[in-house]
Specification:
It is a single chain. The chain is mostly helical. It has one domain. The protein is 73% helix and 0% strand. It has 7 helices and no strands. The longest helix is centred in the C-terminal third of the chain and has 37 residues. The chain is globular, with a radius of gyration of 19 Å.
Length: 221
């Protein structure tokens, strides 16, 4: 991760996504029209969020096994950026829904599940702020992080598929990739997923380095 080639790749892919996502050719579908371009941003942000949540989960498990402070730092910073991506994905989805459904926040199982899932993850940071003892904070938050991940994934990705939903890919409503996306869109969509994941890791790595440096300075005071 100390090599910089992947950072240039992340920046290049994100620039590519922004340019061709805004001016590239897209299918002219009823209702969706130009709003389908949001698929390059809304969906990849959520892919990035999931990748960061998985990374946070892995480091929480590592902390519980080894008790290394560095693993706790990795877990919390990956979770921090994951929540930011989740909120951005939720906002872009609400804007999209306002144009296609006529309501930014309809009473839809998928939307409600996402709201509850983000609240569950937000409680992770409230929990961390409730303890002064660093070891107790790290242990309890690591356990809660595992619980949050185990709750979030079924809540957001499984339960909405069991009932009717406006959201594509849920409740019998087909996902965009099956009917609406063409080969031109896929040439932007797949790089966009990689771009947002790499950007999320990049931001997380910067926050981790800052946090570890602050911890080192405090230990030497």
């Amino acid at each position: 991760m100390r090599k910089i080639w992947w950072k240039f790749l992340a920046a290049g892919l994100l620039l590519y996504t922004a340019i061709f996502g805004l001016i590239g050719e897209v299918p002219r579908q009823p209702i969706l029209n130009e709003t389908i371009r949001n698929v390059y941003f809304h969906v990849p942000m959520w892919f990035g969020m999931m990748a960061l949540m998985i990374s946070s989960l892995v480091y929480s498990i590592k902390y519980l096994r080894n008790g290394q402070v560095q693993d706790d730092v990795y877990a919390v910073e990956f979770a921090n950026v994951a929540i930011v991506f989740g909120v951005l994905g939720f906002i872009t989805g609400s804007i999209w829904g306002n144009y296609t459904w006529g309501d930014p926040l309809p009473k839809d199982p998928k939307i409600i599940a996402v709201e509850v899932g983000l609240l569950i993850y937000s409680a992770y940071f409230v929990l961390r702020g409730s303890f002064e003892d660093e070891q107790k904070k790290a242990r309890l938050s690591a356990v809660y992080n595992i619980f949050a991940f185990a709750s979030f994934m079924p809540l957001v990705w499984i339960l909405p598929r069991l009932t009717d939903s406006l959201h594509p890919g849920n409740g019998g409503n087909p996902a965009f990739g099956k009917y609406d996306m063409d080969s031109n869109m896929r040439m932007v969509f797949y790089p966009a997923i990689l771009a947002w994941i790499l950007v999320g890791v990049w931001i997380s790595s910067l926050r981790i380095r800052i946090k570890l440096l602050n911890n080192h300075l405090q230990d030497n005071l």
